Amino acid sequence: MADRSQTPPPSSNQDSDTDANISITVKFGGRSIPVATSPDSSIKDVKSLLQLLTNVLPRGQKLIFKGKILDDSMTLRASEVKSGAKVMLMASQGLHQGEGPILKAARAQPIIRGTNRSYDVAKEKAAATVDKTHLERWKITGVVALAERNLEFIPDEVWACGPSTRILDISNNSLECVPLRIGSLTSMQKLLMNANGLSDQSINWEGLSSLKFLTVLSMNQNDLTALPPALGAISSLRQLYVANNKLTSLPMEIGHLTQLEVLKVNNNRISTLPTQIGDCFSLVEVDLSSNLLAELPETLGNLRNLKALHLSNNGLKSLPRMLFTTCIQLSTLDLHNTEITVDVLRQIEGWEDFDERRRSKHQKQLDFRVVGSAEFDESADKK
Fold first, then answer.
1. What are the angstrom distances between the C-alpha of 339 and each of 13, 97, 262?
2. What is the pTM of this model?
């Protein structure tokens, strides 16, 4: 007689199927996004996964399957979404993190160059030419203006100005590098090098960090993915602009910038902030909008001089718990297109005092128009 105890239970395969993940395809913006998850995941959980893949905030997502909008509280199994299913994602305008929803990339168009290359080269050389009149003016005023000159390198005449240079504007060019010699401009206070396509390797930070009087550094609209620890050595900085780059984080050494008053790093890919940002106690304005932040360090509450904080278009769900009680000068807070609503704010300690400061500031900006409502509307979403 056979021993039936050796026969595996018939339900084992069924249990295995129950525990296995399912694979679905989400259609969005011309893309087909594969998602593997448990059939017992809620629709809300799926939206959280899609936030990372599409930049669309969960409350801005509508998932549609077989003509019906899926309910956040239901599971995939309960919604009859099985492996191989195709689900459509509809996104509400504006409710996104970072630079916007990740859509299908447009096909690059071929670049058609002019046939008269000799003319183009002559034009570029002429643009880069610095005559004696300019050089003399630079030395007298201390202002070296070289924006929009089709430059691929910094002319030697700039280095000839040496310590007389106070301001150097080399924005909107095509610079290949910012060399070590930048450190020879020992009296420079403002350095503007926006929109040059500069990469991490293009900038000699040893030269920059030797500028002991530099107060304004602007590097907007480049291709920077990281700022090095050497940034912390420019302790004289009061304004730092690195918007519209590809930064994923900020260095811990940013905490050494104790004189920094303005920090604008909006429109990047920053997902975390170092706790040392709380050591920048002179900060008055911080713009972190359009990044990939899911949370903020509690040390942000150490910024007692902070007056304006811009956080729109991030995946934030909460704020540092002491932000309103310790940042007693804060009067501008932009939270549009985040997961933080007015109802969430009202539960944070110190909200009433902050709201009073906000109302007082906007009251001073009113003209003769009659205001129908003073609700907290301009800085956070209601739902």
1. 41, 10, 25
2. 0.74
